């Protein structure tokens, strides 16, 4: 495809608005799916973060998510899309290039799988490249927003503003190209239907690493961190859950039976996981927790993501049971026993809800992926889970090896990026800013008393934002 930023006049004159190859139904579904994924980040995660943190951090947490969502777009269209889905530069990285010229955006999408020999070409999307650029942008943006959940309430906003473009460039694009864009893991046959590795394992591993380098919150915030608005948190969680319809339903790149199956499996697993997590809470803590239910919902959604259109309905139920159990154990038990998990302050537990659940989902995909369903989606021949033949055992080992690469690359690159930023500016806010919160960082507050404008009286006098806070059930 041409990459020139100058559009030939003859090209535009000879390109109808609805060319013969365009399938309006597929194009409509793909743009709706992209919008649903985008809404998971903005407003979904923005308001989820705002409600889930302590009152004095509501605005800062929401702003970190909002900034990340916006900052990814210019990076994506100027160089990162082609690094993720363009021609190969290295076995794990694509060549950077512009994705803003009309002679690139208007023609039909060409999948990277068609560039490689000995690989069966996937179904060719019947819509323009601009649709694909927008759809994949939404995934990249949500990944950056998820990562923010690990470093909320202490990372310097200036350091975060520098970090996001660098991480999208040197970390996200590498994993995306390696698994989805035709890189070495793609050719090796790693299964990741819709981002269990590319989005969730990557954000969980990178977030945990960033939390280590940035350091913990104030001790008083770690010991007492009540969410300021659980109803707002539930609203954000609801947008996240329903938005996953497009997250998994859009990845066959067409409105077909595999897309429908992926949507149904997504909600089966999410609902089952939420119920199982809630049951564990009741069994061990004697009361159901709203936050626990949300965490169970998220782990179910994450776990099914690499397998959504590759497994049968009964397998989605099994994955829901495991995703409501294993991440629950890692968060509620292991995090209180293992020294590393105690030392690293992962604010919202992204390691457990995304890294653990993403790894679990990828491994279960290697066990439960049905060969007939794989043939509807995967461009790699003879793909199947270990339960469906001897070759499937090798697939399970491949899935684990792929997870190791994603974890290793994100730990390494995230560490290098943050160390480099640290040479020029602090990664953390000052101690005074950490004590005050939003008012010190932004000069604004989420909740102002009637007649007090942006600030409460206590903040005008330099007071701590301790006011009335909503306490959630203990988990």
UniProtKB/TrEMBL annotation:
The keyword Transmembrane applies. Belongs to the ammonia transporter channel (TC 1.A.11.2) family. It comes from Dovyalis caffra. Residues 29-447 form the Ammonium transporter AmtB-like domain. It is a multi-pass membrane protein. PROSITE patterns: AMMONIUM_TRANSP. The chain crosses the membrane at residues 29-50, 62-81, 133-153, 160-185, 197-215, 227-244, 264-283, 290-308, 314-334, 355-380, 400-421. One of its GO terms (molecular function) is ammonium channel activity. GO terms for cellular component: plasma membrane. Keywords: Ammonia transport, Membrane, Transmembrane, Transmembrane helix, Transport. InterPro entries: Ammonium/urea_transptr, Ammonium_transpt, Ammonium_transpt_CS, NH4_transpt_AmtB-like_dom, RhesusRHD. It is found in: Cell membrane. Signal peptide: none annotated. This is Ammonium transporter.
């Amino acid at each position: 495809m041409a990459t020139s930023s100058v559009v030939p006049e003859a090209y535009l004159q000879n390109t109808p608005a609805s060319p013969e190859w365009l399938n309006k139904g597929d194009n409509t579904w793909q743009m709706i799916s992209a919008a649903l994924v985008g809404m998971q980040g903005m407003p979904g995660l923005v308001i989820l973060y705002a409600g889930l943190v302590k009152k004095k951090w509501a605005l800062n947490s929401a702003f970190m998510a909002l900034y990340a969502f916006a900052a990814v777009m210019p990076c994506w269209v100027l160089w990162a899309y082609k690094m993720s889905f363009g021609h190969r530069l290295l076995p794990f990285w694509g060549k950077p290039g512009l994705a803003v010229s009309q002679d690139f955006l208007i023609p039909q999408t060409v999948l990277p799988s068609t560039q490689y020999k000995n690989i069966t070409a996937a179904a060719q999307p019947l819509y323009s490249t601009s649709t694909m650029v927008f759809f994949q942008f939404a995934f990249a943006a949500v990944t950056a927003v998820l990562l923010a959940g690990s470093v909320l309430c202490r990372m310097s906003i200036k350091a975060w503003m520098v970090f996001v473009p660098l991480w999208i460039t040197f970390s996200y694009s590498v994993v995306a190209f390696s698994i989805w864009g035709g890189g070495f893991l793609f050719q090796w046959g790693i299964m990741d239907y819709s981002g269990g590795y590319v989005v969730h394992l990557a954000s969980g591993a990178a977030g945990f690493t960033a939390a280590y380098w940035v350091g913990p919150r104030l001790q008083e915030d770690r010991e007492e961190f009540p969410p300021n608005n659980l109803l707002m948190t539930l609203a954000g969680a609801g947008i996240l859950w329903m938005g996953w319809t497009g997250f998994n339903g859009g990845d066959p790149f067409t409105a077909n039976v595999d897309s429908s199956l992926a949507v149904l499996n997504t909600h089966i697993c999410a609902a089952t996981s939420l119920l199982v997590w809630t049951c564990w809470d009741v069994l061990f803590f004697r009361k159901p927790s709203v936050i626990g239910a949300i965490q169970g919902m998220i782990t179910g959604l994450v776990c099914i993501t690499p397998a959504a259109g590759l497994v049968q309905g009964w397998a989605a139920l099994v994955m829901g049971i495991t995703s409501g159990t294993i991440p629950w154990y890692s968060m509620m038990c292991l995090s209180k026993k293992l020294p590393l998990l105690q030392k690293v302050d992962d604010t919202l537990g992204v390691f457990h809800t995304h890294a653990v659940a993403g790894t679990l989902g990828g491994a279960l995909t290697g066990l439960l992926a049905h060969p007939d369903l794989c043939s509807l989606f995967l461009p790699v021949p003879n793909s199947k889970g270990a339960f469906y033949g001897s070759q499937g055992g090798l697939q399970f080992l491949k899935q684990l090896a792929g997870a190791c690469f994603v974890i290793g690359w994100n730990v390494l690159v995230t560490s290098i990026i943050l160390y480099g930023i640290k040479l020029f500016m602090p990664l953390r806010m000052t101690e005074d800013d950490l004590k005050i919160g939003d008012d010190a960082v932004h000069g604004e507050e989420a909740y102002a008393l009637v007649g007090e404008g942006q600030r409460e009286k206590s903040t005008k006098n330099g007071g701590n934002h301790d006011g009335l806070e909503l306490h959630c059930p203990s988990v």
